[in-house]
Each structure stands twice: as structure tokens, then as C-alpha cells.
Amino acid sequence: MELDRISYKNIDFLPKLMSDYLEREPNLGSLFNQPSTLKGFKTTIENRQFSDDKRAILSEVLKSQYLGIDNANQQLSAIELLKKPTTFTVTTGHQLCLGTGPMYFIYKILSVVKLSVQLKKEFPENDFIPIYWMATEDHDFLEINHFNTSKKRYEWKGENDIAVGWKQPEINDLILELEKDIEKNTSSKKWLELIKEAYSKKDLASATRNLVHSFLGKFGVVIIDGDAPQLKQIFAPKMKQEIEHQTSFNSVTKTIKQLNQIGYKEQVSPRDINLFYLSKTSRIRITKKAAGFELADKSKIWTNDEIVNEITTRPELFSPNVLLRPLYQETILPNLAYIGGAGEMSYWFELKSMFENFEIDFPILMLRNSAVLVSKRDAERLSKLKLEWEDIFKSESDLEKRLVEIHGNKNLNLDAYRSKIESIFQELKLLAGSVDAALKPASEVSKTRSLKSIDRLEKKLIRGEKLNLETYLEMMYRVKGSVFPSGNFQERYYNIAEFYPKIGDELFDKLFEAFNPLQPDITVLEF
């Protein structure tokens, strides 16, 4: 059951850059093409160009990637539609997190699925395919090798080395641990069987595709692995341009200066060359030398001609980094929009001029939907506390003070007394100045001391009243802890294993129904 929708306007939760984008801050206008509105989509659809040749290659690659995937008729039909010039994609991407990682992994995919449905309703003459882009070439294994429940952290031991999509799943010990820990009910057993089946595949890319398809395939999401020679061949001219002209470094550096000038911090620092080199044992950054290029560990060097020739003949050995990955994505997909989290979307604001210099269309940028899943017990606690769900996003000290105000026997807010002190010392300052101008600073010092005394007294009063409100405080701490377990926002900490055993597939249906990507917010759902 949906309990509430929390607008980001009402909580101080997003980075300033993302918050200002949602509020249509004029200073950001040059950093994106079209706004995330239906009008913005209409313009983007009219202007988006994507060749028939690219569509044919994309379709063939996706068909090959879906070989052996059961119950994929929706996906195969969508892949066939990609050949048509009236078909477009809306995309999200994420790392290959163990067991899908934190809950927002699921929220990202359901956001693009819901957006595709909304666009089809508004523009029925077009088709819109929701895409999950697997970050198979990422090598930060230690970022993806674990997930959390309220009981414990589960981890797949290993180290950063090769592209994670190539790794062979080795989680037998983890499976045994899960079998011992999970609840013994139908949904728990189904979840564990899906994990076992997925991670029996040859590599992590296959495992992740299998698991995501098992959970969310019914919604029509199409999963793409960019680690494909035919797709890299399409991208090869852009990689050559990067090598020959350092296009991304030059473009992004200028945009970062622009962001700094209007009051925003740098999100991602560009390197001189934003490409990696892939091998069976590593993924290593390419750097520019005075003459030619080399790997960061100096294990391989190229002349200018040699590296351009290798990109031409073996493009699959070259891997875009965090800045060029979005360009690769938009080069090989007929894409309209990218949906991501606030931190992820922030670095996209560095990229528009880079896209222009590579002559690739820049997508609409959209913040994904978020959710908080709460128990009936916690909903009842919040009601007894006489708080709103958005209040839970305040600090514990502010919540404690609020509870004292609501449930305490006295008004312990001393702001009225602070105002009186300010007024009294203003008069004293005038009096002191009439006697000797040098005495004015002394009156300011005395005022500051008095105000600090009021602060200390207020804290003591609140502390004393808190002792009388232990039951309310305990309820508040429990609700706060469910939304921010271990001090982390729920969707960034808990894995689906925390909720699926209790709810089953209905979880996805409820989230899909609740989400509205055209109006990103935080949905509170009771389970």
C-alpha cells in the first residue's frame, strides 16, 4: 500500500547541482539539451537521428546476447522493433552488483520501464524500448562483490583485476551461507533458486543478465552488454578521435571551469586519455606520452599510428572509462533519455560539450524514482509519533526536539527569549556607544555569552524532557533506523533479499505502479 510521496523540495537531500536542475535553474541551461518533460521528449524524438545500419547491427548483437534466455519473447519482439526508424530507447546503466546489489539498482530499471510506458501512451506512433546497460567492462570488483540485509553483509571474495563481466562466479560458500540464513517460505526459496540458477552461468555478465531477466523480464526491459566487437566497431571512430585529439579531456575541462564559475563543484576529473585497454588478466588505463601512448603500468607502448591501427582492427580491446561510457552508449543506441541517481546524473552535466565535439546527440537527463519500504508496524509508530514521513529525513537531534515540542508538557523552544536578549543588547550597545564607542564590542561579547547560555539551558531542558519521553524516542529511533539502516539511506544499503522473501514478485508490481519518472520523488510503500 502506498503511504506517501515525498517531494525533494521538502527535504534537503539531493546534491545542489541535481536539486537546481529539478528546479530548472537558468544557469544550467547550457549544460543540457531538452528538459525532462513531454514537450522535451517531443522535440528530442523529432530531432534524433540514428542510421538504419546501426539499427541492424544493434538488433543482431542483442539477438545473439539473448540466445538461451528463457521467456524472452517480449525482448525479442522489442529487439526486432529496433530496426524501425520510429523506435527509440530509454536507458539506465549499472554495475554488475552481486545479487543486484542495493535496492536502487531495481528502482533504476523500473524507472526506465515506466518511462517507456508513459512515452508510448503520449506518442503512440513510436515505440520505446527500456534498456538496462550492464557495466561489464568495469573492473572495480570490490564495489560490487557484496550486499546487505538487516542481518548481515554477504560477500564474494576476490580482487580488482579483469573486467568484471568476464569473472567466473565462484559463490558456492555464499550460497551455503544463504541457505542457512534465509526464511523458509515460498518467496525465499524462489529467490534463492533464482540466485543459484543465475550464478551457475559461465561469467558474471551472463549471471547478471539471467538474474535481472528473471526478476524484471516480464516488464519488457532489454539488457545490453556493450562488450561486443560489432558494437565497438561502431564506436571505433570516436575512440580514434579521442586518441588523436584528446577530445574528452579538452571538452570536459572547459565545462568544469564553467561549472565552477556558476558555483558548482567538479564531479569527475577527465584524464588525458579516457580509455582503458582490456586483456584476459587486466583492464589498464591508457596514457599519452610525449611521443605515442602507453599503459599506466608501462606494460605496453604504441606509436600514434600503431594505436590507431589497433583500434581499427581490434576495437574490442579498448574500453571507455566513466566519461566516455555515456558517449559509447549514445553512439550505439537510438536513445532519448538516460535515467540515473543524483550523483551519477551530476557528472553528466560535464559532458554536453564533449558530445557536441564528438557529434553525438545528448540525451535528456532524468533522476530515477526512489522508494522507502516500511512495515505496517513502523507506519503505526509514525502515526503515534504524530510525524510525517518526510520528517524522518531530518537529523535525529531535530527529531528529538520536534518530539519534545509535540509530546512534551512545556514549550521548550527558547527562540522568544533569544529575541528579547537581542533586543536588550541592541539597546545596551547604543547606550555603551553613547558613553564610549570603544565599549560597543564589549556589549557584543556579552550578548554572545548570553545567547550561548540560552543554548545550553535549552539543551538541558530538552534533555530533561527527553527522559520523560523515552517511549516516543524509542519509536522514533526504530522508524529512523528502518529508513536509514546503519546511517545509510535504505535503498543504498539493503538488497532485495531484505524484502523479496516477505513480499515476492508483488514487490516489483507495486513499485512499477507507484513510480512516475516524469516526476521523480520518494515513494513510501507499506509491505
Describe the structure.
The chain is α/β, with parallel strands linked by helices and 527 residues long. Helix content is 50%, strand content 13%. It is built from 23 helices and 15 strands. It has a five-stranded parallel β-sheet. Helix 17 runs antiparallel to helix 20 and helix 18 (415-435) packs antiparallel against helix 19. The longest helix has 28 residues, at 440-467. The mean pLDDT is 93.
Label this structure with key terms:
single chain, 527 residues, alpha/beta, five-stranded parallel beta sheet, five-stranded antiparallel beta sheet, 15 strands, 13% strand, globular
Low-pLDDT residue intervals, each spanning 5 or more residues: none
Mean pLDDT score = 93
Helix content: 40-55%
Which structural category fits the helices and strands? alpha/beta
Order of strands, widest sheet: 6-3-2-12-13
Rough outline: globular
| Number of DSSP strand runs | 15
Specify Rg, calculated over alpha carbons: 27 Å
Biggest beta-sheet profile: 5 strands, parallel
What portion of residues belong to β-strands?
A: 5-15%
Number of helices: 23
Distance between the termini: 7 Å
